[in-house]
Amino acid sequence: MSKFKSLIRPAVLLTQVALRPYAASITVNVHRGVHSQKHEETREGVKREVEEVRIPVPYGEIAGKWWGPKDVRPVVCLHGWQDNAGTFDRLIPLLPQHISFLAIDFPGHGLSSRIPDGMTYHTLDSVYLLKLIMQEYHWKKISFLSHSMGSLVGMIFSSIFPDKIDFLVGIDALKPHIADPAKIGPRLEKKIPQMLVADIRNREKSEPPSYAFEELVERLHHGTNKSVSKEAAPYLLNRNIKKSTMHPDKYYFTRDSRLKYSVGVGWSQDVNLELAKRMTMPYMFIKALHSPYYEEKKYFEQYINVVKEVNPKFELEFVDSTHHLHLTEPEKVAPLVTKFLCKYWNKEADLGHK
Asked: Which residue out of 148, 227, 229, 291 is catalytically annotated?
């Protein structure tokens, strides 16, 4: 049996709830089991085979969705902060069918295990996680399609291990952001006690607040400054809610609440610019025009200029959309990514380990 097949869980029966008019082609899994194999359909009517996989890690397992053939190494898809693998459910079906994609849930997100009690989430832990995944599958190299926090993780990993990267596609988060130094101390002063409270609640196993499904859609829509449309929201909720045991017909968010109080890497722009010099692999970055830079724009431009100097295979694209452009308007992103993949994806380089 191949290592790929050994990581696929048997199918389990689920209680499901229809997604109302927002996205009638999918359903919400309200238990933490998942189907091992199915076909998913976008609003454009494109179907692709997808399987749920589980990747063992020391503290549990990483959940993922494997799209496409099993005989090629997949492009690893990394989601944003408090999102999950469902963020790529509308984009991947629009990409070349012969290419495989593995969209993972980061720890504490989606269907993946949480980190142990008493610990905090840190960006660099995700870099280590990607090395664990490479080790598990016996991959010598890796490729990324990434959004937001995932794009930052992909950039950091690629700059640390440039010889291990086939290519990187990042969406709407270029690099670690530069914060006002005067705000870092007060921010940590507030966040650390909040983290302790969240950790205590986790250990108490108390059920979080629950809401009607329509209210979950509204909360996600407004919580992302309307970047996630109401139509697209169920694709994220699909892996992020569970039916309440206390309130019939209500659901609660299952992501680890400690995630709300995580902090970034905290290094300077000088470090970013040194790392930029190592970004020599095929590299595309896609920026949404109606999304903030999350820092002074000059830091973005400085990094871009350095990468352009060292990397003739760097491509910068701007798209008329918001932060979750790949989820809400995938038809605007798919042609850009497809063109890039057609230039740089190589099946011979992506043979899977059996």
From this structure: 148
Active site residue 148: yes
Q: What is the per-residue pLDDT for 351?
A: 55
As a dihedral over the C-alpha atoms of residue 172, residue 176, residue 178, residue 182, rounded to 10 degrees, the angle is 120
Distance CA 248, CA 28 (A): 16
Buried b (16+ CB within 10 A) or exposed e, 296-335: eeebbebbbebbeeebeebeebebebbbbbbbbbbebbbe
C-alpha separations of 39 from 66, 336, 341 in Å = 11, 24, 23
Rounded mean pLDDT for each run of 10 residues along the chain, 354 residues in total: 36 32 38 47 67 97 96 96 97 97 98 96 95 96 98 98 98 95 93 94 92 96 96 96 94 95 91 98 98 96 98 98 98 98 83 49
Residue 60 to residue 44: CA distance in whole angstroms? 36
